[in-house]
Design a protein that fits this description.
single chain; about 325 residues; alpha+beta; Alpha-Beta Plaits; five-stranded antiparallel beta sheet; two-stranded antiparallel sheet; 12 helices; 9 strands; globular
Length: about 325
Amino acid sequence: MLVEFDLAGAEWVIVAYISGDKNMISVVESGKSPHVATGTLISRVSEELILKEHDLLGAATDPDIIRKVREEQLPEIFDGDPFLPRTMTIRQAGKKSNHGLNYDMRYRRFALENEMPETDAKPIVELYRNQAYPGLLDYHEEVRNEIKLKDRTLENLLGRRVRLLDQPGPDLWDKAYSFKPQSTVFDVCRIAFVRAYHDNSIVMRPARFKGNVHDSIFYSYPNSASHDQFLAFCMKIREYMTIKLEAKGRQFSLGVDVKAGPNWGAMEKVKLPEIDRGAAEVPVVQIDQRAWDLDRAVRRAHQTADQTRPSVGH
């Protein structure tokens, strides 16, 4: 069977802690849905009404249908002069904002990527930055200063550094704002894979690594394994992905969702016992060196294969 280990909402969680935004951290630590919480912050509508609206409209985008359903079936949503997105539900607005706006995306690009009018996109972007999570603006300024003061070098939460040499401007800032969250997520997966690679325990021997897609790693595991053995394997990989991170004096780790099934289209959530996400200790430097050694070995193997492969026509 195919097994997926996914760092749930990882980039958003990391942004919360590296920005220090109180609202974002509160959402993370409350365990609430970030999409609903963001919807509440940008609209001033209660979570209860947001969920009711979502149940009624789902992913609807027709403004006439959305307006009609709100007026006929949820009139209380208009109380208190809220902000109500015209072409989507409040939860959908929160979801799209969470996925796109932490790295200072401007409203025209937000409108283009989400196929919505610019007049609808602009207030969502402004409310997200200025009302919901104002700490993001401070984070962006901190990153720009770091670029200027540290010879264009940034360091992620696991010690990996990058030097950005683009000219100052939107392209450079976009890369700079996203580097720490995105590279940290990838490194957590990479470290977990290396730890699992060096684990020769009984539950790990049948596992076969299948791939890494940014914030997820995939394994196959034999159907013939017992249920207890399969759960033990899942808990092992989850443990390896539960790495203690620290930003601005706060320690945290990323949640891991586990799914399994015969193929990607038929995967179901695997329920595992809860763990203390703040308790994991990982020898990051040692593991990181192993990861780089493994990367170099793979590259050398590919180079050797290319050199020994016969040319076309010979």
